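So, who can interpret the following?
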Amino acid sequence: MKPKLIGLFLLASFSIQAQYTDMINSNRPGESFGAYSVGSNVLQFETGLAYGKDNHVFPLIPDLSQVDYQYQVRYGLFMEQLEIILNGTFVNAEETLLRGGTETTSNYSNFRSNTFGAKYLIYDPYLKRALEGPNLYSWKKNNLPQWRDLIPAVSIYAGVNLLFGENPFKFPGEPNISPKAALITQNNFGRNWVLVSNFIVDKPTTDFPTYAGIFTLTHSIYARTGVFAEFQTYISDIYSDEILRGGVAFLVNKNLQVDVSGLINFKDSPERWRVGFGVSYRVDMHDTDEYLFKDNKEKALFLEEKEKREKERQRMRRRDQMRN
């Protein structure tokens, strides 16, 4: 084998890129956060529009129609494992109350949620597998689910809720700023199945904290199309519920994804449903890959080989200049 080919092999086999992917990595159309970041120096916008109703069986509680403007802005910082996230929902709502044969309506709008936070990947079991490389003797072990897939990637999330002014979506006495935290896990089963779990504590320092779990199962059915099913449960002294979501996402190109989705719940007061669509787009400014190594010896070998290749390129440039 020629020296240049040996160098290329060493650079490829002794280093693994951490988070960045060639294709967009979106949290939509579900509500959960994936464990992985968008990659360093990548700016990503995820937005959607949904319409739905909350209907009550109790006549003294008004029914609610609303339009949700969902947004999420993600940016990968200097570390591949770290990203910052601004996400929330702005709602236009209309309440309808039927009393004594007379129907009255009222309209209001504001942010139902607006949260700024950061997510950090603390454990990734797939890095070791990438360093080991594919199994050259078994298609099954490379493509089908294995027992080791039960070990998830794990991230932690910490953020602050930001709701100001006279907001009708705030409970009485709710502060303008409150904390939010989450533990995020992600399992990749084979090549086509992904399970994401979020365990959330929201507003724990207030009079009405919320504890939630979101479990999202995604399946790729074609190269550019995926479907998802999601179950969410949350518990609070103000309101508790279980919600089921489903939808389809389509990859237009490596930087653009579109989706449609809907939800229903399991209560009769309110009885809820939503339908919506969304778009995810990334501005890919990623120019330098971050590499992870098994140990310092492997890193030293990588840097040595990289220096040799740079010297070889300089020598070739000088030779070409002398010829010209």
In short: The CA atoms of residues 25 and 38 lie 6 Å apart. The two ends are 30 Å apart (CA to CA). The chain has a mean pLDDT of 84. Residues 19-289 form a domain with the Porin fold (CATH 2.40.160.40).
